[in-house]
Amino acid sequence: MQRKMGWVLLALLLLAGIPAICSRSIQAASPAVTVTPSQSDGTVAVTVSDAELKGKEISVVCYAPGASGAYSDLTANKASIVYMNQYTINGTLSFNFKVKKQLAPGLYTLVVTSEKGQAVNQFRFIPEDKPAPGQTAGPGGNTVNPPIPEKPVTTKKKVLPAPKGVKAKPSGKKKIKVSWKKVKGAKGYQIGVASKKKGKYKVKLTIKGGSKKSAALKKMKSGKVYYIKVRAYQLSGKKKTAGKYSKIVKVKVR
Fold first, then answer.
1. What is the 3-state secondary structure (H, E, C) of 47-66?
2. Rounded mean pLDDT of 31-39?
3. Would you give the distance in Å from CA 16 to the centre of its chain?
């Protein structure tokens, strides 16, 4: 009902020869009307003084950015009207209204018309220098792009090759001597032992030092056959990174 009355009032004012805004140019804000928009909830607080309007009956129309016709052309601007109403003022009038449409960047225009004059105020919900998504406001309100985070550089260590020349032979009672050729870059070696060739190999002995080329396995079972392989390792702090295992060799304990 209020929307319909506003349309009728504006039509009557125009027919009566009341000055209308026929230009889309930005006009200076009238001191007779103050506008305070709130982006958080899309509301607009308006205070109207009759100091300039000098009329008791006023019509209020608010246009969203993008209105193309003259402000007095309600038909051309129908899609851009976000609020329309009429009021009676006597001295000072304050009221609030809420923009139900999604807030848009650009200038909103509030037009207040009375029998004696017209006031135009333009305002923004979204500041002109508000950073776009993914941007930040720099000194002086200038928009700057955030620094692109650098991807962490991971240096993948080369897997040490399998030791060559691995040999295993009995060495005294319940002992096995294992030898190999040293591997470049190694910090030490590990000897894996299993009772079956395709069985599960357990690290029986760890030897520190990349220059070592032999070691002895002790407390082995006499008369038993063992399968042995050797691998080198390197260090990342205290963590050992093992290389590839050597070929499997077979040995029988005395």
1. EEEHHHHCCCEEEEEEECCC
2. 89
3. 56
Whether 109 contacts 23, CB under 8 Å: no
| pTM, two decimal places | 0.43
CA distance 249 to 111: 96
User: What percent of the chain is modeled with pLDDT above 70?
Assistant: 76
d(CA 33, CA 48): 5
The count of residues in the chain is: 254
Contact 108, 46 (CB under 8 A): no
Quick check: 214 and 168 in contact, CB under 8 A?
A: no
Measure the CA–CA gap between 51 and 232, rounded to whole angstroms: 93
State how far the Cα of 37 lies from the Cα of 51, in Å rounded to an integer: 22
| Structural contact between residues 154 and 145, judged by C-beta atoms closer than 8 angstroms | no
- Answer for the pair 188, 154: CB distance below 8 angstroms, yes or no: no
Q: Could you tell me the two tokens for 158?
A: 């080369």
Q: What is the H or E stretch that residue 222 is in? A: none
pLDDT tens digits, one per residue of 142-179: 444 455 556 665 666 689 999 999 999 999 899 999 99
Assess whether pLDDT exceeds 90 at residue 72. no
Between CA 152 and CA 66 the distance in angstroms is 46
Q: Under 8 Å CB-to-CB from 251, ≥6 apart: which residues?
A: 168, 169, 170, 176, 225, 226, 228
Tokens 């063992």 sit on residue: 226
**CB neighbour list of residue 140: distance below 8 Å, 6 or more residues apart:** none
Assigned token pair, 235: 């260090």
Task: Give me the sheet containing 118-123, strands edge to edge.
Answer: 81-88, 57-63, 108-113, 118-123
